[in-house]
Specification:
heterodimer, A: 396 residues, mainly alpha, four-stranded mixed beta sheet, 16 helices, 4 strands, B: 251 residues, alpha/beta, six-stranded mixed beta sheet, four-stranded antiparallel beta sheet, 9 helices, 37% helix, globular
Chain lengths: 396, 251
């Protein structure tokens, strides 16, 4: 008896959900919004990172006036590997700049014979060292020449059977504890906000359409007159809208992780890569958000007086996922309770994931539970509200 | 059978207590099985409020409604299972086909499997709408929309059938289809309750007429009895006399 009763309830719920899916997946406009978010993500990431990486790490070519370049072909090719080029190859548009900087290196005529004899060769670097624009090139030339010189020195010792580690009794290992590069922080923060936005945006039109839209099309009253509990109605609509939201988020994650593969984030000090396990953790974090977002949207949309009002009011909800992570990342002293709040909690965890820190599973569990609890409360409240006379009176 | 017993309902304006509207003021009537009962009343007489109380959407301040002996206020879901509802404004799910929409309501009423399929086929055949069945309902004409709504409210063969101004906006052909269907339904012993403005229709179709004015029962009886009661030849004149004003007829 109990099981047949349960089956009847499940069949009813199944029919309700099936109808929501049919309507949602046939709503081309709503689907386009969901997919648009997803397809724009990788483009944004690619373009932003490409621009920033170029700015940050590219070693621009330096043109040096060599005299006696023909005496040291190996040195020249080593310098060329480091983008230190001969002035004779300078492109027309940069000619004036490098003419003005006037960096010259003089290679002596007896370079080859001195090299063979093991004598010290003196290269002369001439430039105006007080000129700011000249300083970075000079540093790079200095490094390149020392590197070249050391590599030859090491080889000579190796040939004589000397362990070259003897030359480095003390070695300084540098560990940069500075925060990751500010620009990288910006990218990861934007990706975090983008994921939140995707969770909120993707299911948005479906949520509005299945609530305020149905009321406007006079089908809600008919549904409320049927022998079905309002809780089931709300659950079906929540599942419909949040499924679209989940699809949107999954697409953003997949496409982003694919596109991140094309840009080398390590060049700008990024310590994370969006591999499968990271993506899985992000998805786990965002799943409750999808349900939470759809529940919020349904809750608000059902209370509005018209479809138009629902669109503008629910549109304002979009501000939350964009605003909260931004504020949180700006805060220096974060109060403990912030960890527990939906969106704020998740955005802090996402921030840490992008910083390359270990995932704090307790925090994940806590914020997810709170998010789910609030979602359940919203659903129950909405189911109760749909029974109220106020909602019925607003039908016509 | 639908029994409405001493129904009271007021809508209270929270900001302005004086603005309270008394929609129902002790309305009682019975709609019997095997009969078509018509509710006549001017706009604002409380017809829609009465029907919404009957569906269990509104709760009465006083009095009760029972559907086949089930108290609506106590067990709305069980009472609704006994009802077929043709609503005031019927909208359709425009992204579903007619078949899917009827299937949806059949499933809500707990039908499954082969029996559901058979019921849907039957109602499609009865309403002569097999050709429409697998088209999406967007762009349906008013008559076609009426058929879909009728099919979805009758697919589970409800004992009681409630229609709220069903012929509004329908052409002659559609109205005839509806009437024929109601007559067939009545012959099978179902209880039919419908509200209307159209006197000819009420006169032609109803076994009993209930006239509601100001939330109260103004008169009841067969159309002929009402005419006799008011001493008029036409139901329309009788109606105006019985509700005691010209107001409402013009509206």
């Amino acid at each position: 008896m109990i099981s047949s009763n349960f089956n009847a309830h499940m069949n009813q719920l199944k029919a309700l959900i099936l109808k929501e899916y049919r309507e949602a997946f046939r709503d081309k406009r709503a689907l386009m919004v969901a997919l648009m978010m997803a397809f724009l993500a990788p483009i944004m990431i690619m373009v932003m990172s490409k621009i920033m990486i170029e700015k940050l790490v590219d070693e621009p070519p330096i043109y040096i006036k060599f005299t006696g370049a023909e005496f040291a072909p190996k040195l020249m090719s080593h310098l060329a590997d480091n983008n230190l080029l001969n002035f004779v190859d300078v492109p027309e548009d940069e000619k004036n700049t490098w003419q003005q900087r006037n960096i010259t290196i003089e290679i002596p005529q007896d370079y080859a014979s001195d090299m063979a004899a093991g004598k010290t060769i003196k290269l002369h670097l001439q430039a105006d060292f007080t000129d700011k624009a000249v300083k970075p090139p000079v540093r790079r030339i200095n490094n390149a020449v020392r590197e070249f010189s050391l590599s030859i020195g090491y080889k000579r010792l190796l040939l004589r059977g000397v362990d070259i580690r003897l030359l480095n009794p003390v070695k300084l290992i540098e560990q940069d504890t500075a925060k990751p590069d500010a620009t990288f922080m910006l990218i990861s923060m934007m990706l975090g906000i983008y994921l939140m936005l995707a969770a909120f945006m993707s299911g948005l039109s479906v949520a509005i359409d299945s609530s305020a839209g149905e009321r406007e099309r006079n089908v809600l009253e008919m549904l409320l007159c049927q022998p079905v509990s309002t809780l089931k109605i709300v659950l079906a609509k929540l599942i419909g809208a949040s499924t679209i939201a989940v699809i949107g988020v999954v697409l953003v994650l997949v496409l982003t992780s694919l596109s991140v593969g094309f840009v080398d984030l390590t060049k700008i000090g990024a310590t994370f890569s969006l591999d499968l396990s990271t993506a899985a953790v992000l998805l786990l974090l965002l799943l409750p958000i999808c349900f939470f977002a759809s529940a919020c949207q349904l809750f608000v949309a059902f209370q509005t007086k018209s479809f138009k009002e629902a669109q503008s009011t629910v549109g304002m909800l979009i501000g939350i996922p964009a605003f909260v992570p931004f504020v949180v990342s700006m805060m220096d002293d974060r109060p403990e309770w912030l960890n527990w709040l939906p969106i704020a909690g998740q955005s802090m965890i996402i921030e840490n994931i992008f910083k390359g820190l270990e995932v704090n599973w307790l925090a994940v569990f806590a914020t997810s539970s709170v998010t789910i609890a609030i979602t359940v409360a919203l659903v129950l409240a909405l189911a109760k509200k749909l029974k109220s006379e106020k909602v019925v009176m607003a039908l016509s | 059978m639908i029994e409405v017993n001493n129904l009271h309902k007021s809508f209270i304006d929270k900001k302005d207590k004086k603005n309270t509207v008394k929609a129902l003021d002790g309305l009682s009537f019975t709609a019997k099985d095997g009969e078509i009962t018509g509710i006549l009343g001017p706009n604002g007489a409380g017809k829609t409020t009465c029907l919404r109380t009957l569906y269990g959407l509104l709760s009465a301040d006083e009095g009760d409604v029972t559907v086949d002996g089930i108290e609506v206020a106590e067990n709305p879901l069980a009472a609704r299972a006994k009802l077929g509802i043709f609503p005031d404004k019927f909208g359709l799910y425009e992204r579903l086909t007619a078949y899917e929409q009827i299937d949806y309501f059949a499933s809500i009423h707990g039908m499954t499997g082969a029996s559901k399929k058979q019921a849907i086929e039957q109602v499609l055949k009865d309403l002569d709408m097999e050709e429409l069945a697998h088209r999406k309902t967007v762009g349906f004409s008013q008559g076609q929309r009426m058929k879909v709504t009728l099919a979805q409210s009758l697919v589970h063969q409800p004992q009681n059938f409630v229609l709220d101004e069903p012929t509004r906006g329908l052409d002659v052909m559609s109205t005839r289809i509806l009437r024929n269907h109601l007559a067939k339904f009545k012959a099978k012993g179902h209880c039919i309750l419908f509200s209307s403005h159209v006197m000819q229709e009420v006169a032609a179709l109803c076994d009993r007429v209930i006239i509601v004015a100001n939330g109260k029962l103004a008169a009841q009886g067969t159309p002929q009895e009402l005419c006799d009661l008011a001493g008029e030849e036409h139901l329309e004149d009788a109606f105006v006399k019985l509700i005691g004003s010209d107001e409402g007829v013009a509206a």
